[in-house]
Inverse folding.
């Protein structure tokens, strides 16, 4: 069975803030919190959320391309049967298995502009198989302590760098080919300035720089705010780069499936607060999303 399985890595960039609600609140902070990894306290996108949205978007895609049927209920039934063959149901495993989306690069405001923070461990795990040339090659420090290690796009004469409220000394990473990784070109263009910090600081900096908004429920009959209906909620910032893995049966064409659902991720999105401008994601897989999907529309 294991010989028939493969693992694919997919990357995504948040075009809008992302809110995957945890159904609770953090005392003294916000009313509506987002899901976090219990081991690291870093926000994440659950694999079940990715799988559910991908399945629904694939179903919509199949409905829109089905020209032989005119009845919407029949179209839906026919499309759901096709989706069931790929994503499975309660009685049968699907050909794709989606795992949690991790934050790899997180945007933070600084005196150098927006910088993307990450950790040595994240970069080595997600990009150890990347192969590209030229400016995409970046150097990873051998060891990481409490400094900010500048690896891309920041002036070398800066002795300190603020990440939101936190001020850190900077360390230049000397070039060493044995510790180089190569970012895929798309991700290299998404994150212009990259800084590596320690794992123990990463979760704190991420959580302290999430987007927090305040909303109020409006009474449609009066057009005024309803008493006691003010609430706050948090979201993963626009520009965050995620990575998630997909377990794939070897007879499944994951590239074709991603090509079909990517336009819906870009226009409809994932998670809650969609009516407030949240949720859109741009997917990147193996360099093919650019050539195939960038000009796609929902009616393609």
């Amino acid at each position: 069975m294991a010989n028939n399985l493969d693992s694919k890595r997919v990357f995504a960039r948040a075009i809008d803030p992302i809110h995957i609600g945890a159904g609770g609140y953090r005392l003294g902070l916000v009313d509506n919190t987002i899901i976090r990894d219990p081991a690291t306290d870093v926000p994440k996108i659950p694999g079940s959320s990715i799988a559910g949205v991908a399945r629904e978007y694939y179903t919509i895609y199949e409905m829109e391309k089905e020209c032989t049927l005119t009845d919407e209920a029949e179209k839906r039934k026919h499309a759901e049967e096709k989706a069931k063959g790929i994503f499975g149901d309660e009685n049968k495993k699907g050909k794709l298995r989606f795992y949690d989306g991790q934050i790899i690069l997180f945007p933070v405001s600084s005196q150098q502009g927006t910088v993307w923070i990450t950790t040595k461990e994240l970069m080595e795990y997600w990009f150890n198989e990347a192969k590209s040339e030229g400016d995409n090659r970046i150097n990873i420090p051998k060891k990481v302590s409490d400094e900010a290690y500048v690896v891309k796009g920041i002036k070398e004469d800066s002795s300190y760098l603020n990440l939101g409220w936190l001020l850190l000394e900077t360390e230049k990473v000397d070039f060493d080919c044995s510790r180089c990784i190569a970012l895929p070109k798309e991700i290299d263009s998404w994150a212009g300035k990259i800084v590596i910090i320690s794992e123990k600081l990463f979760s704190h900096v991420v959580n302290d720089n999430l987007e927090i908004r305040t909303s109020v429920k409006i009474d449609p009959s009066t057009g005024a705010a309803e008493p006691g209906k003010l609430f706050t909620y948090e979201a993963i910032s626009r520009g965050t780069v995620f990575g998630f893995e997909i377990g794939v049966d070897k007879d499944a064409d994951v590239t074709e499936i991603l090509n079909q659902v990517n336009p819906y991720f870009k226009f409809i999105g994932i998670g809650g607060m969609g009516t407030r401008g949240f949720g859109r994601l741009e997917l990147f897989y193996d360099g093919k999303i650019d050539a195939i999907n960038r000009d796609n529309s929902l009616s393609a």
